[in-house]
Design brief:
The protein is mainly alpha-helical. The chain contains 19 helices and four strands.
Length: about 400
């Protein structure tokens, strides 16, 4: 087979719109918990492309089910390969944290905007030129790449089936994206969960399966034969373990909660005066920082934190300073949202119903303090004691 890092792959990777991903950490603030997770979106994108190449080869040479080969053309194969390479093009530092607060910020939409960006590389080529050129480029209409990334349903039914099939290679239950980031995140964090995934067996037994969507329409997705079932299950199990140990780590959740408060205050600020008489919002300022509609900018998480600090309120600025200093809030007590025996409401649900009342925060703090003191007094040992009265309010 031809080399993975071909000239046209190199052209995309070295383009300014893509190379900026080299400064975007894959796991954001998690590197303050696991120092080894300093890998970037650029590395992940290359790994996803490598996996996609393996998937396409396995599906094309499926000896029991020729459907993939019958449905796809050379252009389709090039299109899904390009889509896997640029699938994270819209990512930026702390993107997922900002998307949770401001629904208008979506890295998927930014991907489409970067594909249309008019910036050129050292040879004067835009990303569109590299992807669409039929002599030295990928010879793929850029809209095909966008359609695969969006799993577009427009057009003829037959084209829809093929489009959703190709989209499932990049975004599906056992897609090339998950396969790369779980193994890479696990390895860089020093965890062993990624090694549970039997990649060779998974790829060897890939095939196209027929199913139905929520509307009852026929869809084609990527699945495995029975012999690959254990490998597919190992992927799901590794994902579950990584969420427990890495993605939902208590310190990382604390940092995200603090950031969420600061970002909420920032996005709720009224528009400010920009250049000339224009009024800009926080989202506008973010897109300008990224250079989304002009020249791509190489920025890191600290640049985004500085922008949030500039736009947020006084408590938000204090939270951002604490995040920069890695002074995260500590876990005081864990409240599980589980129903009580006998059909009674859980502790969390009881307080959610009272959230509209005045004094909710003070009442919640008082109740948590009461539970904490009761818990500490039950623990035996010289290192455990209830909080002193003068410290109980802090």
């Amino acid at each position: 087979p031809p080399a993975v890092f071909s000239a046209r792959v190199k052209a995309v990777v070295e383009h300014p719109c893509f190379s900026r991903l080299g400064s975007v950490l894959q796991l954001g603030l998690l590197n303050t918990v696991y120092p080894g997770v300093s890998h970037t979106r650029l590395e992940h994108s290359l790994g996803t492309f490598k996996n996609c190449r393996s998937y396409v080869q396995a599906l094309y040479h499926d000896q029991f089910n020729p459907l993939f080969r019958q449905l796809t053309s050379d252009e389709d194969l090039r299109a899904v390969l390009v889509a896997s390479l640029v699938h994270d093009l819209g990512q930026f530092p702390l993107a997922h944290e900002l998307e949770e607060i401001d629904r208008g910020i979506k890295h998927e939409e930014y991907t489409a905007l970067w594909l249309d960006n008019g910036s050129v590389d050292s040879r004067g080529r835009t990303l569109r030129d590299i992807i669409e050129n039929r002599e030295w480029g990928w010879a793929v209409p850029i809209q095909r790449v966008k359609d695969i990334l969006k799993a577009s349903r427009e057009g003829e039914l037959f084209r829809d089936l093929k489009e959703t099939m190709l989209a499932s290679v990049i975004d599906g239950p056992i897609d090339v994206d998950k396969l790369d980031y779980m193994m890479r995140d696990s390895r860089c964090a020093g965890l062993t969960y990624g090694s549970l995934i039997d990649v060779d067996r998974l790829v060897r037994h890939l095939t196209v399966v027929t199913g139905k969507d929520s509307g009852g329409h026929c869809v084609l997705t990527i699945g495995t034969y029975e012999k690959g079932q254990s490998a597919a299950e190992s992927l799901s199990f590794a994902r579950y373990l990584l969420y427990q140990a890495l993605y939902w780590h208590r310190v990382a959740r604390s940092a995200r909660a603090m950031l969420r408060e600061a970002v909420t205050a920032a996005v709720n600020q009224p528009p400010r005066r920009g250049l000339g008489k224009t009024r800009v919002t926080f989202k506008d300022a973010l897109e300008e920082l990224l250079g989304l509609r002009s020249t791509p900018q190489v920025i890191a998480a600290n640049d985004v934190l500085n922008l949030i600090e500039k736009w947020t309120d006084s408590p938000g600025r204090e939270l951002i300073e604490m995040i920069k200093d890695r002074d995260y809030y500590k876990r005081l007590v864990t409240i599980h949202n589980e129903p009580e025996p006998g059909g009674r409401q859980s502790f969390v649900d009881q307080f959610r119903e009272r959230s509209a009342r005045k004094g909710f925060a003070a009442e919640l703090q008082s109740k948590i303090r009461e539970l904490l003191i009761a818990r500490l007094t039950q623990i035996k040992g010289p290192s455990a004691s209830a909080l002193a009265p003068e410290r109980a309010d802090q």
